[in-house]
Structures are given as structure tokens and as C-alpha cells.
Amino acid sequence: MNETNNTDKMFEISVIETVPRVSKIITISCCLAMSILYVSSLYIWNNKHNRDHPATVKRRFLSVSVVMLVAPVFLYSFSSTELMEKVQFNELLGLRWHGLLMAILIPYLLTMLLFLGPLCVELQSESQKMFFDFEFWKSSFKNILWIRNHVMAPLSEEFVFRACMMPLILQSFSPLASVFITPLFFGVAHVHHIIERLTMGMDFTAALIISISQLAYTTLFGFYSAYLFARTGHFIAPFLVHAFCNHMGLPDLQELWQQQLWKRILLICCYIGGFIGWVLLLNMATLPSVYNNKIFWPRQCEIFTNNTLSCTV
């Protein structure tokens, strides 16, 4: 009798699902504590300067660096003992070698496809040429604001809100539920910018509208970033994508509208085509098997009558 006839049960499972569940109250509380800790660290300094002043930026670098050291303690302390026995702690944080090259390239290229329209608009202004200029990179790495936006902010936020929170939430909720839960902490953590805008003299209504808009798009990005982490099992994937999105920012539709009619139509097609392509390729480009991810995302498994277990990613 062949193996398929001996199949008793088919189901999907990941390594993190083979261990006892952690209390939802515990994981939510830990994530909330990490969020508060991260935001609070930005305001512990008695500083009269605005957020872009070099002194403020340097102090915040120090603050979030400390939070990055503390956040893994929550994951280590409250994770299932059985899970810690099955998976190395660095792998639980998404810091592993297997599938690393794919995790660097594929999500980045996928995100470039999503931004195909804005990238084509940039090509019209030939601003892309600066990325091939050594002096541009030299000056960028001397610019503390550039380092904040493209290195430190993506690094610290993805490490705390993805690498430390996702493995905890995944021990209490399903992968899809986790993808929708953790970004809420990430989005709400950005609401604090309303305080900075008010201290700079901005009207409350304007500050509130801007902050709500920021909450919306940071939460949406959080869904995508959390999905990448859970599917690839790599920290590097959401980190690089976050840095790229910080560089691109929100699409400049005004610049699009200033193009000649035929160019405008072509660029609108790039916007639409890039988004459709991203939607169609998202699942295929993030197949866990490509990244050797057996930890977070369910694999299709079969239990045979002889009590053997066979799993495929």
C-alpha cells in the first residue's frame, strides 16, 4: 500500500505551533510594554531642541539602542520553554543565515515593484543618477538626519516591533491574526509626533489630521512588514523594505500631474501596473520555502497510519 493511502490526516503547522500556547494577556501586555518603552525613550531627555536638531537625534539614538537591548528580554523571558528548546534565540529574532540572500533581494525588489510609479516619476527628473555618485553616499553617511531616517529608525523600529513582538504574538495567535495585531502597536507608537508638532506651534487641528494620516499609513506599512517577517522568518527583509519606504515617502502626485499628458498617462499605468503586480506576486515571492522558514508560517503536514509525520513548506 502506498503512502498516500496510509494518510490519516492532513493539516498545516509551523514549529511555533507545535509548542504550548502562551497566554494572550501576557503577549499583548509585553508588546504594549515594549511600545511604551520605545516611545518613552524618545522623551526622557530634558531637551529644548526640536526632533531634527543633531543633539536631539544623537540622544534618541542612544535611547532606542538601550530599548533594543531590553526588548529581547521580554521575548526570552515570556516565550514557551519548549519553543526555546526547539529554536535558537537568534533565529527566533529573525537573525539567521539560511535564506538570507533571498530575504535581502526578493522583498526589496517586490517593494520596488509596488513603487514602480513613483520610481518612474523620479526617472523623469534623473534624480536616480545621484545613487551612482560616490560623493552622494559619502555625504549621506555624514548626515545624521539621513542616518536616522534610513538606518537607525528602520533598524530600531523593525527590531522592536517585528523581531521582538512578532515571535511573542505568534505564540498566542494565528499567523494572519498576528500580522494584523502587531502593526497596531507600531501605528499607535507614531501618534506621539502630534506632541512635537504642537510644541513647534502647529495648529491643533492640522497636527491632529497629519498625525491621523501618519497613523493610517504607518499601520498599513506595519501589516506589510509583519507579513514579510512572518513569511520569510528574517529580520533583514522588513528592515531593508522599511529603509526603502522611508526614502520613497508618500507618492508625490503633484509632480505626476505636472508631466505632459502622454507621460502622465504612461506613469499612471506604471502606478496601477506596479500595484497589481505587487498584489499578484506577494504570495509567491514570500513563500516560506524560499527562505527556509519553518519557524513562523504553517507548513502542510500529513500524519500517516504508522504515526510518521511528513511536512512540506
Automatic annotation (TrEMBL):
GO biological process, one term: CAAX-box protein processing
Stored PANTHER family: CAAX PRENYL PROTEASE 2, PROTEASE U48 CAAX PRENYL PROTEASE RCE1
GO MF annotation terms: metalloendopeptidase activity
Sequence intervals crossing the membrane: 25-45, 61-79, 99-121, 176-195, 207-229, 265-287
UniProt protein name: CAAX prenyl protease 2
Catalytic activity: Hydrolyzes the peptide bond -P2-(S-farnesyl or geranylgeranyl)C-P1'-P2'-P3'-COOH where P1' and P2' are amino acids with aliphatic sidechains and P3' is any C-terminal residue
Keywords associated with the record: Endoplasmic reticulum, Hydrolase, Membrane, Protease, Transmembrane, Transmembrane helix
Keyword Magnesium annotated: no
CAAX prenyl protease 2/Lysostaphin resistance protein A-like domain location: 144-248
Lineage: Eukaryota, Metazoa, Ecdysozoa, Arthropoda, Hexapoda
Subcellular localization: Endoplasmic reticulum membrane
Principal subcellular localization: endoplasmic reticulum
Any single Pfam family the record assigns to this protein: Rce1-like
Broadest EC class assigned to this enzyme: hydrolase
InterPro entries (alphabetical): Rce1, Rce1/LyrA-like_dom
GO terms for cellular component: endoplasmic reticulum membrane
Enzyme Commission number(s) of this protein: 3.4.26.1
Hydrolase listed as a keyword: yes
Membrane topology: Multi-pass membrane protein
Family membership: Belongs to the peptidase U48 family.
